[in-house]
């Protein structure tokens, strides 16, 4: 039986009435995305239609999922909210704090020892507030959610940007910051700007070396890293129905890399098969009773241009296998063109590592397709030229794959089987062949490949592909290897051509596991004691941020003008910094250390207007804070791209930054800034970015009249005595302005609960 089956049945009992009402008030057929959105309104039955990309709407999500790195801050905030129990089903998954080094049998015990304080905190706080807890080694959050909690037609939020993976089972699942999760855990509505809709029509059928991963690699090349911002991507067509549920999950997962709010597919037979295979026949039966409400209306898919804001069509029969990268997930290259492109760009041809796993590609089907390539190498006496690392998606996947002999195939190629955890994908990788700053190439089946992401080396060129393509390239040891045409030389000196990969959608003998790693919370957690040592370096109870004084902000200094791509990895790095995710002051020592200073093109080296000297960004900002001087961060396009980590908003807030002024924001980061009481604004004229100079002072001359849809006026004073007056836009509505006034959304929640 499924977890929370009564909640799921309640959703299905309401969906027909709410969707029918939504059709009535909008006067048109509905996409799947709209059906889910309108059936999860906080106020119940729809009473009006909403304008996409404009109207802020309050929703009632069905559940919440948190991974250990972000759960710490989310739960530290929830502890301040004055509630006895989470208001909706919530789970915590320990997958980010496990470093990949020697293999699971060594790495997991090591992580339990080094992070025991954090794991104990998460287990105890989960037990206290009625939250399900998945132990270290249980698996990667999004694979575990797909196997246990995702259900067609549901709405979920999660404190990780790849929460969107659950779209593979027909959910609207959205990555958020911890403060958003706290709202819902506290029994309050969750606010989202009603998304625009991008339809992707898939025709034909995948075959040969082409995999579901290639669909999203192609889409990323079309949309770029910001082309999906503010939109839900909805896949449909015969090609969509021909793919497995986990293949759909892969596509949805990496939708985060184009900035999409989420991605989803309509309910079909592949989803039903997956639900039944994962012991959720009760969900499949319930879904079948309302299946017409769990996919888009026929009229929508017949004439998509009339109902979507943008339509993309991809013929899967003609789609070629791709590799994307390096340094950005939207640089899409068909594998047949990679050799020429790599040579032209001086990318290292030798491949040092092939890494298979992550929340994007760690299903049973993924492992079987990659294993089919690995087995050929073993059988045809081809020795792998690159190192291999494998991260199974969950203990269920690992146990089943070991039972069925899949892991042994990889081990026969001298692969290292890492823990069922994120590992190198999130920068938790103690790489055995450390390269220093040497240029080198790795290929992986992950979702992100930003500079320094996997191993901390800015010169590691990371390329993203399907598990089977990663396996083939790692075996060849060459980035320019095209397995569809190129041959390998085996140990006997013979030429060998790899056959096309084969795989199994689901294990023929079913999934099996001895201990999935789940701990249910106690029924009454009132007596559970959550301890946080005041001397801890890993955990720190939160102090409320100060409310706005209601006055214009004047005399603010420039902290940094960030040049080019500035992701959440640049603002708050992961890797070794993950250990401080529960201690705001300690982790703030990584604040903006990866951002490139536009005035000297260096990282973590900015000028202090107090001393005139250059120093690290956090050290410089701490001096501004000690002196009571407010500061401004200036950024480029799509600022805050990438992870949902709210630390990228909380750290500058904690250190005294007041304003983030950029050309444009990534959706989650903009919301996170608002939640933490920051002023997140954009240049009305993006060319005004060029006006900002290193020694500038900012006066916000009409902040006292801060109001929705009203631009702000900023006086920018330059060191030579000249000044420019610029306009800045914002997207704050009145409730969000109240967050700003109170100092944070959490402050407002506490105030309301105390009333």
From TrEMBL:
GO terms, molecular function: 4 iron, 4 sulfur cluster binding; aconitate hydratase activity; metal ion binding
Domain Aconitase A/isopropylmalate dehydratase small subunit swivel residues, every copy: 557-685
Cofactor: [4Fe-4S] cluster
A GO biological process held by the record: tricarboxylic acid cycle
Pathway the protein contributes to: Carbohydrate metabolism; tricarboxylic acid cycle; isocitrate from oxaloacetate: step 2/2
PROSITE patterns for this protein: ACONITASE_1
Record's keyword terms, sorted: Iron, Iron-sulfur, Lyase, Metal-binding, Transit peptide, Tricarboxylic acid cycle
Cellular component aspect of the GO annotation: cytosol
Occurrences of domain Aconitase/3-isopropylmalate dehydratase large subunit alpha/beta/alpha (ranges): 34-477
InterPro entries with a match to the protein in the record: Acnase/IPM_dHydase_lsu_aba_1/3, Acoase/IPM_deHydtase_lsu_aba, Aconitase/3IPM_dehydase_swvl, Aconitase/IPM_isomerase, Aconitase_4Fe-4S_BS, Aconitase_4Fe-4S_dom, Aconitase_dom2, Aconitase_mito-like
Domain of life the protein comes from: Bacteria
Reactions performed catalytically: citrate = D-threo-isocitrate
EC number(s) per entry: 4.2.1.3
Similarity comment: Belongs to the aconitase/IPM isomerase family.
Protein name: Aconitate hydratase A
Source organism (scientific name): Salinimicrobium marinum
